[in-house]
Each structure stands twice: as C-alpha cells, then as structure tokens.
C-alpha cells in the first residue's frame, strides 16, 4: 500500500490534500482520481466561466498524475 494525495484545483484555488489515501498502487490512484473528478463535475454549473477542474495526484516521491475536466462549448458558425 502507498499513500497518495489528491490536490484539487477548481479554476480559482488549490485545495491541498494533507491527509491522503492509502491505496494499493498507481492504478488505484488513477481510478480514485477519475471517480473523484466525475463527482466534482456533476456539481458544476454547465458552461460556467471556469478554467476547468484538475486533480493533481502525488505520493511521497512527487507528482504521479493529473486528471482534468474541461467543460467546453463549441458552436457552429451559422
């Protein structure tokens, strides 16, 4: 088991995870980040002005991965 920390960037502020989670490994951390990001995305107002949301995952050695969600609108030029 390894300790992973999930720091959340909401487009305006960084929330640093001081406690972390004890997980089986990197793949478990990837899954946890994806599930957490999906939960956060469900709470966002669609197409709100934001830089998106990111979860930066780190362990004792440093950064492991970054999972991001960007709510982008693309319109046809009619």
UniProtKB/TrEMBL annotation:
Start and end residues of each DUF6894 domain: 4-69
- Which InterPro entries does the record cross-reference, listed alphabetically? DUF6894
What protein am I looking at?
DUF6894 domain-containing protein
Its taxonomic placement starts with: Bacteria, Pseudomonadati, Pseudomonadota, Alphaproteobacteria, Hyphomicrobiales
